[in-house]
Amino acid sequence: MNLENTQVQMRKGILEYCILHIISRGEVYASDMLDELTAARMIVVEGTLYPLLTRLKNSGLVEYKWVESKSGPPRKYYTLTDSGTRFLHGLTETWDDLVHSTNQITQKSKTIY
Amino acid sequence: MNLENTQVQMRKGILEYCILHIISRGEVYASDMLDELTAARMIVVEGTLYPLLTRLKNSGLVEYKWVESKSGPPRKYYTLTDSGTRFLHGLTETWDDLVHSTNQITQKSKTIY
DNA sequence: AAAGGTACTATGCATGGCCAAGTACTATTG
DNA sequence: CAATAGTACTTGGCCATGCATAGTACCTTT
Q1: A47/D26 CA-to-C1' distance in Å
Q2: pLDDT tens digits, residue range A24-70?
Q3: How far is CA A23 from the centre of its chain?
Q4: Which residue, among A101, A103, A107, A108, would best test binding to B if mutated, counting the most B CBs under 10 Å from its CB?
């Protein structure tokens, strides 16, 4: 039980939320997402992102279209489906609740009555 | 890939952080922790909490002493070890970073330049 | 045509939350 | 004193996800 491992565990599920959010803002492909995640200091590797996108696709939350590129193989540009949009709303609520609950616990010792 | 499942995944690692925080405030046993978690609307079941406490103990992050009870079997009262305190500090940083990164991503669409 | 970069795919492992069933101790009740 | 109910802790197995690693396929450059 080391820190590094716990960091990985903490990431679980949250990544899915972040990815859906990024896709919700417009058509993007994997490298765009990696750039945004990296910019936000949420380190993600390919081996995590691609399987996640495949799962989202298979669940019908996102869809993609192939777009040819000038500098390499064609890319999958993703968009949210209606189902994905609803799912994202549910996730947002879940995440907000989780943060709220955690704050309540971790800041209790700082609360003064 | 349903909401309920993602909620479970989101909880991973965060629970460990919350538990360590609760223990850091003084001697508690499992039912105390459940009460606090429930009060903060972070629903946890026994089958999650007890194995987690065992892991924390085996990792040397917490220790416990048996205390007899007037209304049932003896209880394990937990406290943080020095190692556990350091670990909690590391986790706090990790959690804060994660929340910050997530906010940066999810609130980008609301940002106005 | 050879080399290097870009984009996506596939397989298998480790981990933690959860379910479900079980053990063990105490107090209460008839 | 046996039976019941309540409390506290234990154990084994399942599942989904993040990740490591290796591989496929396409394009551009030289």
Answers
A1: 20
A2: 999 999 999 999 999 999 989 999 999 999 999 999 999 999 998 88
A3: 9
A4: A101
pLDDT digits (tens, 9 = 90+) for B23-45: 999 999 999 999 999 999 998 99
pLDDT at B25 (0 to 100): 94
Interchain pair A13, B13: CB under 8 A = no
Domain boundaries, chain B: 3-110
Q: What is the CATH code for A3-107?
A: 1.10.10.10
**Coil, helix or strand for A12?**
coil
Using an 8 Å CB-CB cutoff, list chain A residues near B13. Answer: 6-12
Question: How many CA atoms lie within 13 Å of A26's alpha carbon, on the beta-carbon side?
Answer: 4
Q: Which long-range contacts (CB under 8 A, 24 or more apart) does B26-35 make?
A: B26/B79, B27/B77, B27/B78, B27/B79, B28/B77, B28/B78, B29/B67, B29/B75, B29/B76, B29/B77, B29/B78, B30/B75, B30/B76, B31/B75
Give me the CATH topology for the region B3-110: Arc Repressor Mutant, subunit A (1.10.10)
In this prediction the ipTM stands at 0.87
The end-to-end CA distance of chain A, in Å, is 36
**Is pLDDT of A110 > 90?**
no
